[in-house]
Batch of 2 targets.
Target 1
Amino acid sequence: MRRIYKSRKFLILCYTLAAALVISAVFASVSAAASPAKEGQGYTVVAKAPIPLSEIAQKFFAKPNYWPAIMAATNRKHIEDPSFTRISDPKSIKPGWKLWIPNKEWADGFMKVWTPAKPELLFGVGPKGQLVVASWWTAGGEAEGLKALFDIYRSKYPDVEIVNATIAGGAGYVFRAVIKPRLIAGDPPDTFQLHAGLEVEGYSPETYLTPLDDLYAIEGWKNVFPPDLLKLLKYKGHYWGVPVNIHRSNVLWYDKSIFARAGLIPPRTWDEFFDVCEKLKAQGIVPIVMGTKGGWEAGHVFEGILAGVLGAEKYKGLWTGATPWTSPLVTKALNIYKRMLTYVNTDHPALSWDGAGTYMIANKGAMMIMGDWANGWFMAKGYTNYGWAPVPGTKGIFVGLSDTFCLPKMARNRDNAIAWLRVCGSKEGQEAFNPKKGSIPSRMDANPSLFNKYLQSAMRDWKTDAIVPSCIHGAAAIESWVTDYKDAINLFVATGNVSATQAALQEASVTAGVGK
Ligand code: GAL
């Protein structure tokens, strides 16, 4: 009994010791984390290399996810005292930067309201307020173009704090799902990216956006934007966005060195295209690269095939009801697509459009059908060995789209947003933005010598080609129809079922109130 008692006592002692050890270890780790002073404190980053802000949040708050509080507090401080850093990328905080660590109460309060959908919370408010610009331009070329516009804006309005509110994901499919609830909640960004054409219908513009007709009149834009574009920009009798560019969707990009080595020329017809594919395949090169991760890219490729097989008028008719989707030409287009898919990289579901482009840069993939933002991306990546041709069958056809910026009715910084729209529509803005973005200006008076060879060729084509609207990029159809189209094509990529796809496409046009 005594022995048991003794050994029990021993066990209790052991447990107590162990518990004491654990408690002191916890205390040690907490006290190792610096804590912010009552009213907050300045902190100069000591590190050998850039570190993420989350590491500093861990140090002061023992919570890595508190980085937005430090970012917001530092950026607010920066407005009053520029010796504090303006943080734009929380993943890379450089040694020597001066940050402001808020006190715990402020940080807790901030974290209660913080949401990634509202990046403006992370920035201070300049003497003239903020300008919250929302777009999906995060890829190479896109980001550089946007920055060029910001630089112009900043030089004109240095007291406005620009917030680059990007939501990544090509063609804006993720973006629109984030913007809509903000519009409905009456808490929108000051301006946001919107495709010219029927995409605007999805935003209920009469309820949520401001018509820009007066601005068009004041700025004389009706005289400088081409008539085809002006027509596309008008919805229910009003202009809802200011176009910064014109993009072409139906481009076949190819790697010049691969083509030269194989003695190939860019294919003009689908027969030539498949000959080229066979030759490339025999050499162990992926003939045509694609990335379908974003869900829109497969539909993008197909609109180019449709335009090539149907020709400009019948392609346009698909979106007006004049051409039924049951047409044998659509069957032909689907069969071409099905065959094309046998020459595509098998990892396409894992890649975005720019991810697919890396095949070309690495000289492993020979061709890619993508809009001419790929040209901006190639330039940003320092890749120069690319050539271009219209998607087979589309010579003389320009499948067009345009990016605009609009003005939500509830924009908090309305004057700043109007100033932004004026920069977007200006010659200066368009000449700075487009050469980097890889698009042609929407103004007819821009200086062509500022643009690379590809863009100069696109400028010429825009003047002479038949202009037809892109579906996937918001020009041709209302958003719900685009979604049905996109879903049908994605399913087709997986199943290859031509008749079922054609029936689904026809049904989608009927649902949209266009097909019979
Ligand atoms: C398009 C947009 C382009 C380009 C592309 C890829 O919809 O109009 O500007 O950014 O998406 O993100």
Note: Residues 136-137, 142, 170-172, 195, 247, 371, 373, 401, 403, 473 surround beta-D-galactopyranose (CB under 6 Å).
Target 2
Amino acid sequence: MTSLKNVLLAFCITWVITPALAQQKPSASVDQKIEALISQMTIEEKAGQLNIVVGETINTGPTMHTAESKKFDEQIRAGKLTGLFNVYGAAYTKRLQKIAVEESRLHIPLLFGADIIHGFKTVTPIPLGEAASWDLDLIRRSAQMAAREATSAGINLNFAPMMDISRDPRWGRISEGAGEDTYLGSRIAEARVKGFQGDKLSDPATMAACLKHFAAYGAAEAGRDYNTADISERVLQEIYLPPFKAAIDAGAATVMPSFNELDGVPATANRHLLQDILRKQWNFNGAVISDYGAVGEMINHGSSADGSKAVIHSLEAGTDMDMMSYLYISKIPELVKAGSLDVKYVDAAVRRILKLKFDLGLFDNAYLYSDEVREKKEVRSKENIALAREVARKSMVLLKNDNGLLPLRSSYKKIAVIGPLADNKEDMNGSWSFFGEATHPVSVLQGIKARVPASTEVVYHPGCNLFDNSRDKMTEAMTTAQGADLTLLVVGESAVMNGEAASRADIGLPGVQEDLVKMISKSGKPVVVVLLNGRPLTMEWLDQNVPAILETWTLGSEAGNAVADVLFGDYNPSGKLPVTFPRHVGQIPIYYNHKNTGRPYSGTNNEPASDRVYVSKYRDIKNTPLYPFGYGLSYTTFTYSEVTLNKATMKNGEQIEATVTVTNNGNYDGEEVVQLYLHDLVGSVTRPVKELKGFQKVMIRKGEAKKITFTITDKELTFLRGDMTWGTEPGMFEVLVGTNSDAVKKKSFELVK
Ligand code: BGC
């Protein structure tokens, strides 16, 4: 009934009330409808279509609202807003939409944007955690669920996926992306876009994706948020851009330029990024939406003298929409009237925004995304909670498990759960989760209590605080641990310690938590560390002294239940690190696909001592990471056969098959992520020591052996050659296959002319 009403209402709005459209036949093409609308718009209305502002409920940047600017109803009525973001609720968005389509002069519907980074009300693990699942279909399904929930509450434009590659764990926003690797990041970017957008943007359960942050935001110098990125064109093109290209090829609707400058020009007005690459090379026709206040920040950057110049620079470079600078709306009319800004730039931007609104189906039914019935049914539905638990289980990475301490045996009579994050719900939602309610998540303590057998008692102590260095509670915590058979130590970062504006110079366990672990480790009872964090941590002491460590990132709504699933063996962990864990902050940037240098250090100490001096290494610490990229254990053990190739040479256009047999010779069924790396030995420019080129996540039953085959084609051998063209070069390649980037079996072949 409601939907029939909606359809009728929408029909009236579109074909009767909207004057520009009413003059046309329904059969007019979308382009014709857009041109008709543009021809009727005043310059003020055009500027309005390029202006999006944050609602009042959730702030994701500096507060820029004035009492005047908060009068959203009035602004909508006057055609001064193209949409709002970070507001939600079917009823609320419907009310605002009604003003737009019934009371504004041209009846143009609103966009409702939001940062749905890892779930809406049903919160899934932070993106870095999901990336650790290496399960592309799971990641797609997780994004799809987020879209189903968020769209029912009115949201039609998602400022996600965040897909910045980062090699610097000091940078807090590493938690929002897929880690350090371009290949894995590209596949995950595609999966997320497909999940958010589905097959059709006008499907009410899908929303437009916004690829962010374009580009090289993750290369912020010294890992300090918003800082300058200074990288070569080669590194930009090879490392940072491919996930964006992959996501655009997957159909992404919009792009957000990053806050940083690149080669001296802020991304918001960077023609090389926005024109040469995005529009010309990649043929991207979608809308470009500035980051929060980024147009105005051109002044601080020192690249625009004032607000007017910032508008001209950004708009002419191709940033179509101004988020929260209030500059397009305030300056465009006067600039055009004064002849300082050609209206063709304004029209081009308006055209892309209107096209997005058409593609979303808003001109057919402005209320498509605000559906109270669907909202009630969809938000935090049983199925969604079950999926959140599945994603959470699969995102965890088992970092250490001496003598099979895990899974926990049911014979423990008393388990101590200790740590400042053990009884915590709110932080389970993680950074960039503004919609998840603080009271919803299942804490680790709750999850453990719900899972232990009736014969096991669970005792709890916080041990210490997250935000101060007080040791007052430690002795009591020690007594709790000593009285139990085993301790689960739940330590890590609070959600606000990672994410935006949350760079850290010291990436160890915050506060006195490491001291707590050291103390409890002396309790004489086994200790399992359950880590919660949004970035790699430096924790060499833990690795050397604690028998079992489970990396859980931040798992979302079902955190505690999922942790219990893994600790008690209801799910055998299968996650692999999407990012390198350094031993020491001084090693940063540290990443697996580095170059060899002219004086590589083998690390084996097999060479004469004199040859170990003038090599690329540290005097005080090892070169190697604490845990390499791709690393993660299972409760079972997988052994790899040697790699076999079906031929020793290949020509362009041909392919080679690389095969390994992986055997599960442990005691549990388990999933393994079999990883394929390639090393191009000699090139017109040097190549990394290895690069991920494929992976397969497979279930291998206890006692079973599985043959895994990878096909290598020109695509896998292509790189940005010395002359800056993409292609292959003849020569020797190593094929490396294994369980992580460090443990690989090797075989070589030659690419011949
Ligand atoms: C972030 C973006 C986000 C925007 C809107 C900015 O501070 O950098 O990623 O989409 O706020 O919330």
Note: The longest helix spans residues 136-152.
